[in-house]
Write a structure and sequence with these properties.
CATH architecture of the largest domain: 3-Layer(aba) Sandwich
Largest sheet: 4 strands, antiparallel
Radius of gyration: 18 Å
Shape: globular
Structural class: alpha+beta
CATH class of the largest domain: Alpha Beta
Number of helices: 3
Order of helices and strands: EEHEEHH
Oligomer: single chain
Number of domains: 2
């Protein structure tokens, strides 16, 4: 007997940036099946990007849950990707950490030392050696 697991399931998801201020979105519920095409539409500032950031694991919800293939979304993962509208880095990570993240996604079996050496080689190649520890 095969059980159907939603590709993406959102339960009572809410996001508030400042306690006491109005929520960006509140008690959002939906599910998406594998292969389903979905659009999130709304006016500027209504929370579209924020909810996508929560679903990608780039931001935390204030309350509620989001699951991908039955596993709760908690933080960034190599299983999910985001294509940003403009060039973007993960702002909480250094230049080296951002590059390491990309290299690890391409070569998941490489040891940490090899990933870092590979990343540093290309950071130096493009002249960003002095900035590798900057956020």
């Amino acid at each position: 007997m095969q059980t159907n697991i939603d590709f993406l399931k959102v339960e009572n998801l809410s996001k508030t940036y400042v306690a006491g201020s109005p929520p960006v979105f509140e008690n959002v519920n939906f599910d998406i099946q594998q292969g389903e095409f979905v659009c999130i539409i709304g006016h500027s500032g209504c929370g579209k990007t924020t909810i996508l950031n929560v679903l990608a694991g780039l931001e935390e919800a204030s309350s509620g849950y989001a699951y991908m293939l039955g596993r709760e979304i908690k933080g960034p993962s190599l299983e999910r990707g985001v294509v940003f509208q403009g060039h973007a880095l993960m702002p909480w990570m250094t230049v080296l950490q951002n590059i390491n993240f990309a290299v690890k996604s391409k070569y998941p079996d490489w040891p940490k030392a090899k990933i870092t050496a590979h990343s540093e080689k290309y950071i130096e190649l493009v002249g960003l050696g002095a900035a590798k520890q900057k956020r």
